[in-house]
Design brief:
It is a single chain. By secondary structure, the protein is mainly α. The protein has one domain. It is built from 5 helices and no strands. The radius of gyration is 14 Å and the shape is elongated. The two termini are 15 Å apart. It comes from Olleya sediminilitoris. This is Import component protein. Keywords: Membrane, Transmembrane, Transmembrane helix.
């Protein structure tokens, strides 16, 4: 992939990590041009947002500050890592769960 493709897709790649709405907007906007860099980060961002909502549902069942803060710190770190890789123009998957998101959402952006 060339540097021009990465530069064109950086904005939508970062937007894809900003809540589920940002992911949907980035997916729709990438639908016409099909930027490979943006598609990679769309899969990562969508997977991370859906995982965040899924785990948050179960964490909310506990009325415990320590569990909640551990959840927020760990998910925030994964989100920060995803945004930083998009800003840096890298296509490194999020540790452990990133390759799973790439497999689950492989039809997204192709």
């Amino acid at each position: 992939m060339n540097q021009n493709t990465i530069e064109e897709g950086k904005t939508l790649a970062v937007v894809s990590y900003l809540t589920i709405i940002g992911s949907v907007i980035a997916i729709i906007m990438n639908g016409e041009k099909k930027n490979e860099f943006t598609s990679f980060h769309n899969r990562q961002g969508l997977g991370l947002c859906l995982l965040w909502m899924f785990i948050a549902y179960f964490v909310s069942q506990f009325d415990n500050f320590q569990i909640s803060i551990a959840f927020w710190i760990s998910m925030g770190a994964l989100l920060f890592l995803g945004v930083m890789t998009a800003i840096n123009g890298s296509m490194k998957p999020i540790p452990v769960i990133g390759p799973i998101f790439q497999k689950i959402f492989k039809g997204l952006g192709k």
